[in-house]
Structures are given as structure tokens and as C-alpha cells.
Specification:
The protein has 309 residues and is mainly α. 65% of the residues lie in helices and 1% in strands. The chain has helices spanning 18-21, 25-42, 52-61, 68-79, 88-106, 122-126, 128-147, 154-168, 173-182, 189-214, 219-243, 264-268, 270-289, 296-306, and strands spanning 115-116, 119-120. The radius of gyration is 19 Å and the shape is globular.
Length: 309
């Protein structure tokens, strides 16, 4: 579903040359494989027989996915000249939080989804009670993984957990989901954009900022990377809404979930929504060019958004 034609989105000189600086698909696959391997390790149990909640945690978190949030953490770490391997546990924590949010979003009392990541949703496979327990356990494990990361200082671990926890609660994912559930289909554009920020962008922001924290970025750099990630997250949500009209067999999850809900696609129409995506990605590329000491964040946007959709 290619929706961009802007030279800025194709890697103009101001955004760096894809031929010389672009993270290749092979490199991205290697990083994704490292995330998956560490996720498997972090979600493995010493007991010979795992419990139903543990099995459900692995079922969701290890299912094939884009892993955008952990990859963003690793990219942000590298952007500020940090070592990505030092951020691997924190990156996996962002994926655990994301997986937990998907389990909860899919519940019958929420979106009542049937498929996710090309398999039955957790509540359909394990039952609602186990799904809820698995989501709670994934959240707990995410913060535990950071707290127990002995390669990071106490101060860094505290900053990471404060950053990630702030994205989860009533200033972030939880409030965003509530706003999505109860807004109706007549919400104003400003309401929808604020909802997008809370339900989606906040976790992108936390993921990027955590990488910056691990790499020792200063306050100014962290604020800039937060703004960068906000535009990436908002673009992602609009793209996700555009995909809701694609036949379900073409994706790995249910479609038609946005009927009767407020979305920018419903308010503006698909063409204007695509323009909005382009604007957010242009802003993200501009901010990435001003952030840190490399092109890793620009490469991330190009690899996972501009060249893909």
C-alpha cells in the first residue's frame, strides 16, 4: 500500500542518501531476530511445565510481528552513539507492554477482535480470564526486565521504568483506549488527534526516549527525540486506520474494527489522511536530521514506513 511520492520521503539530500546510510532489510532482520531471541529468553521459565498465563504471554509476545517499538529503542540508542546491545532488555520491555496492550484491546469488552498476528486472539485461544492475567503478567515482566538489568546503572533503570510506566497509565495507553471506546463517531479532529497521541504515540515516544536515556543523551536531545517519535507514532496510527479498510485476508488481524469509531480517515477521507501521514513523516525526518550524531533514526523511518507503505 504505497502512499507517498514526496522527494523528502524518498530520501532527499536533506534527509541523507539511502544508498549510503540506509539500514538494509537484512540489517533490520538481524536486529528483529535479536529482539525475538531475547524475548524468548526473558519469557522462558525455569519450571519444567509452564502455567497457562505464561503460555499465553509467550503466545502473544513471540508471535511474528513488526517489532517497531523495540527496533526504535535500538535505533535511538545507536543514534546517540550508544551500543544497541545495552538496550536489548529495555527494547524487549517495550514489546511486552505493546503485546499486553494488544491482548487487552482485543477483549470482547473492548474491540472484540478474533485474529491478531495471523492467529486467534489470546482470549479466543486461552479464554478471557487467562488473557487478562497474561496481559497483567506481561506488564509486570516488562518492568522487571528493566529493574534486573545489571548492565545499567540504578539511575538509568529508574529513568527507564519511569519513562515506560508513564506511557501505560491514565496519561497514555489506558486513557487513549478509553477515549477510543466511548468517543462515538462524531468526535472532533482535535479530539481524535489527542486520542491517537495517547493510544499509540506515547509508546513510540517512550521507546525512542528509552534508547536516548541508555545512550546518555541530554535533555535537549531527549525532547527532540520525543517529538520525532510522536510524529512517527501518529503516522503509524493513521496508516493503521487506512489499513482497516483492506480485506482481512491481506493482513494479519481483523479489519472493519473502526466502523462507528472516530478516526481521521472517517473525518477527513482517505486521501487527506494520506497527506496527513506524509506531513508527520516529513516532520519526523526533519527532526531526525537534527537529532543525535547519525542517520539511524532517518533510516528507521525510511525502512519501516516510507519504503514499505
Amino acid at each position: 500500500m504505497k502512499i507517498y511520492s514526496s522527494p523528502a520521503l524518498a530520501g532527499s539530500a536533506s534527509h541523507g542518501s539511502p544508498a549510503t546510510s540506509m539500514v538494509t532489510g537484512v540489517q533490520s532482520d538481524v536486529l528483529r531476530a535479536q529482539v525475538d531471541e531475547r524475548l524468548d529468553q526473558l519469557l522462558s521459565e525455569k519450571e519444567a511445565q509452564i502455567s497457562a498465563p505464561q503460555e499465553a504471554m509467550r503466545y502473544m509476545a513471540l508471535a511474528p510481528g513488526k517489532r517497531l517499538r523495540p527496533l526504535l529503542t535500538l535505533a535511538a540508542t545507536q543514534q546517540f552513539c550508544g551500543e544497541p546491545s545495552a538496550a536489548l532488555n529495555a527494547a524487549c520491555a517495550t514489546e511486552m507492554v505493546h503485546a499486553a496492550s494488544l491482548i487487552l484491546d482485543d477483549l470482547p469488552c473492548m474491540d472484540d477482535a478474533k485474529m491478531r498476528r495471523n492467529q486467534p486472539t489470546v482470549h479466543r485461544h486461552f479464554g478471557e480470564s487467562i488473557a487478562i492475567l497474561a496481559a497483567i503478567s506481561l506488564l509486570a515482566r516488562a518492568f522487571e526486565c528493566i529493574a534486573q538489568d545489571d548492565d545499567l546503572s540504578d539511575a538509568t533503570r529508574n529513568q527507564l521504568n519511569a519513562c515506560l510506566s508513564g506511557a501505560v497509565g491514565t496519561a497514555g495507553l489506558a486513557l487513549g483506549q478509553a477515549e477510543d471506546l466511548f468517543a462515538g463517531d462524531t468526535a472532533a479532529q482535535s479530539y481524535v488527534e489527542t486520542m491517537y497521541h495517547r493510544k499509540t504515540a506515547v509508546l513510540f515516544i517512550a521507546s525512542a526516549e528509552m534508547g536516548a536515556i541508555i545512550a546518555g543523551a541530554d535533555g535537549t536531545e531527549r525532547r527532540r527525540v520525543q517529538n520525532f517519535a510522536r510524529h512517527v507514532g501518529l503516522a503509524y496510527q493513521i496508516i493503521d486506520d487506512l489499513a482497516d479498510g483492506v480485506p482481512a485476508h491481506a493482513l494479519d488481524k481483523d479489519t472493519g474494527q473502526d466502523i462507528g469509531k472516530p478516526t481521521l480517515v472517517a473525518l477527513m477521507g482517505p486521501d487527506a489522511a494520506r497527506v496527513k501521514v506524509k506531513q508527520h513523516l516529513d516532520h519526523a525526518m526533519e527532526l531526525a536530521a537534527q537529532t543525535g550524531r547519525g542517520t539511524t533514526l532517518q533510516d528507521f523511518v525510511h525502512q519501516h514506513f516510507i519504503s514499505t507503505f
